[in-house]
């Protein structure tokens, strides 16, 4: 599956983050640029009003109530800025695996690729469905409760009185619209990054399949000679595939590492604040249910990120086992040198990091939850 044809990338295009290639001139270009500016401004204004509300809050409890959504929107704002500023690099990342070396060959490799493509779609549908459900829930709740009470869905500071009719509707519609756009951008930005890691896993599995099939290939009558060109060509192609995979992971990590760091930092704080707020609310409170759902979605967001990152690490280290398990003794000396080079390369494991500080793995996920719990205990003892 081409990343440029994925559901996540298509949704990000609909939100105004990635202009289609055929829209680089004429009225379509200006229309799409206007959509990008509109979406970005909605979210940045929401973030700004939320952060100002935190600063101007008279009590810690009110600041905590304001912080979890404002910080989440801050994380989405960073994702938007990173995507727009590094759009050319993102295109380069999507094109790395789109070459003859990386394309699946034969029914077995197509089956491997299809397996991971289906996993990618399921992941996007599952996580995207949760996000859309939260957006619908917030919208319906706001229509039923906030309008009647003339209150905003989320705490925010505005330079005008929001109790008057037309000013209230401006602020209300802005928050509902910005929350919907941000939920889609944040969700499908994450699932797009999931798809990047899933594609890396797919290519690693194809590489392992090709390595195990080398001895079978050279048993063909025209490949009986150990030093024949066909055998050496295969081993070099497989070494090149491994090199392309390493290049793909390195480049994609360079593009998204700052965003990953912001995501981890925001998630730790939001999980902490959400837990703190739950401890102050009653179970029958409408706000309690919303925060529980929001907290679980945030935990799931980080878990999926760390789980896919952990799988990339495991799959990359398993390449050496594929080389060791194959009948490499039947290969010629030149092919053995290529395999030795590939084996050496596997000692530099593939991993996604947050600016070289945190590695996406299940261990990091556990550490994040422990950090959030420690912050929660600190807040409980100090308030």
Can you offer a commentary on this structure?
The mean pLDDT is about 85. The protein has ten helices and two strands, in the order H-H-H-H-H-H-H-H-H-E-E-H. It is an all-alpha fold and about 375 residues long. It has one domain. A hairpin with a 3-residue loop joins strand 1 and strand 2. A two-stranded antiparallel ribbon has the order 1-2.
Strand ordering within the main sheet = 1-2
Q: How would a crystallographer describe the biggest sheet?
A: 2 strands, antiparallel
Cα-atom radius of gyration: 25 Å
Q: Could you name the ranges where pLDDT drops below 50 across 5 or more consecutive residues?
A: none
Structural class: mainly alpha
Distance between the termini: 52 Å
Total domain count: 1
Number of strands: 2
Element order, helices and strands?
HHHHHHHHHEEH
How much strand?
under 5%
Share of helix, binned: over 70%
Specify the number of helices. 10
